Amino acid sequence: MPICSFVTNLPNADVPADFESKLTTLLADLLKKDPAKITIQALTGARMSKGGSNAPMAMLRIWSIAVFSKEKNALYAKPVYAFLKEQLPAVDMERLVVLFHDMSADDIAPK
Question: How far apart are CA 81 and CA 96, in angstroms?
């Protein structure tokens, strides 16, 4: 049940309309998860700063159960950064931030 939060200071027009769909496909393949279980929140036009600069940037945070570790994160990072750079050419690589968060099944509210 991966949960993703994508935030960028780019305007909505500069983020591809199919960004969430493509990110879902990428994460399903990488994390070996059912695409129907992946939730993505995409916020554009956010006020963001890195190193005191408001230049174009983006941050992707991904939470999931039992898929993240030091070793696995190194394998996930390369294709995730490549995807973001491809989808967001206006953002320099050093202004992309990706965070992986391991979570427990207990963190999900029961229905």
Answer: 8
Radius of gyration of the chain (CA): 14
pTM, whole model, 2 decimals?
0.93
- What length does the chain have? 111
| pLDDT 10s digits, 18-73 | 999 999 999 999 999 999 999 999 999 999 999 999 999 999 999 999 999 999 99
